[in-house]
Amino acid sequence: MTVRLAVDALSGGYGKVRVVRDINVTVESGEVLAILGPNGAGKTTTLLTIAGMLARHAGTVTVDGQEMGSGDPVETNHNGVVLVPDDRALFQPLTVAEHLELACQKTKRNPRELLDVFPTLEKRWGVAAGNLSGGEQQMLALARGLAQNPRVLLIDEMSMGLAPIIVEHLLPVVRQAAAEHGAAVVLVEQHVSLALEVADHAMVIAHGEVVLHATAEELRKNEGALDAAYLG
Ligand SMILES: Nc1ncnc2c1ncn2[C@@H]1O[C@H](COP(=O)(O)OP(=O)(O)OP(=O)(O)O)[C@@H](O)[C@H]1O
Ligand SMILES: [Mg+2]
């Protein structure tokens, strides 16, 4: 496997206010990294900085050996980095079909291919995003991300507001995206046990710093280390 995403000595925040410090991590093609940590730790800030939505204060973000410009979400997206944000960022009046047609423009994929992954969306094809349930909206947000054939897929709080049974259904899709398309997946998740089921490795961010980084297997066996990292 090859290193797809390399984050080196990354620091960032809002304006001059530094929120995350010295984040170092690599994710290989086909791998899933979970980012865990308490509320306000800096998980979303980390994803936004990797995606170029926020300018970096320091450090580098490299995709397949190519360094991304700081605070340049368009260039970063052109290089295959796709963010599924925590608010899902759907266009309320646009239908499922319209969202997926737009997402497929660049990749020239057939939008209906995404129905193989999310068959539930077939009967909602002509329905506006604003009229979908929370779970359906998350499926659409993920489908739109996958439609872009991401090299790096960043997913923030997929489980937010969803019943665990729906999350259990969505997580394997993430695994599949990594396995079938060789994407490097970074998953920010509050449901620690669910995240560790699907991830290869995980890191805990607390107060803007990485306080623990280990394989998911090690963390599943050692809940004490996780609890300690959360409590800082
Ligand atoms: N737009 C903003 N402007 C200034 N500070 C912000 C902004 N967004 C977040 N912050 C601050 O950055 C810190 C980290 O926030 P962030 O959203 O990255 O945390 P998080 O780990 O994703 O938390 P949660 O689990 O609640 O989603 C917090 O102290 C927060 O107040
Ligand atoms: Mg967050």
Question: Any overview of this molecule?
Answer:
It is a single chain. This protein is α/β, with parallel strands linked by helices and 232 residues long. The chain folds into 2 domains: 159 residues, Rossmann fold (3-Layer(aba) Sandwich), CATH 3.40.50; 59 residues, no CATH class. The strands form 2 sheets. Strands 6-7-8-3-9-10 form a 6-stranded mixed β-sheet, sandwiched between helices. Strands 2-1-4-5 form a 4-stranded antiparallel β-sheet, with helices on one face. Helix 3 packs parallel to helix 5. The longest helix is centred in the C-terminal third of the chain and has 18 residues. The radius of gyration is 17 Å and the shape is globular. Bound molecules: adenosine-5'-triphosphate and magnesium ion.
Could you list some keywords that capture this structure?
232 residues; alpha/beta; Rossmann fold; six-stranded mixed β-sheet; four-stranded antiparallel β-sheet; globular; binds adenosine-5'-triphosphate; binds magnesium ion
Q: What's a quick, concise take on this entry?
A:
With 232 residues, the protein is of the alpha/beta class. It has nine helices and ten strands. Strand 9 (201-206) and strand 10 (209-215) form a beta hairpin.
Shape: globular
Distance between the termini: 33 Å
CATH architecture of the largest domain: 3-Layer(aba) Sandwich
Total of helices: 9
Mean pLDDT: 94
Strands, total number: 10
CATH-defined superfamily of the largest domain: P-loop containing nucleotide triphosphate hydrolases
Q: C-alpha Rg, in Å? A: 17 Å
Main sheet?
Answer: 6 strands, mixed
What low-confidence regions span 5 or more consecutive residues with pLDDT below 50?
none
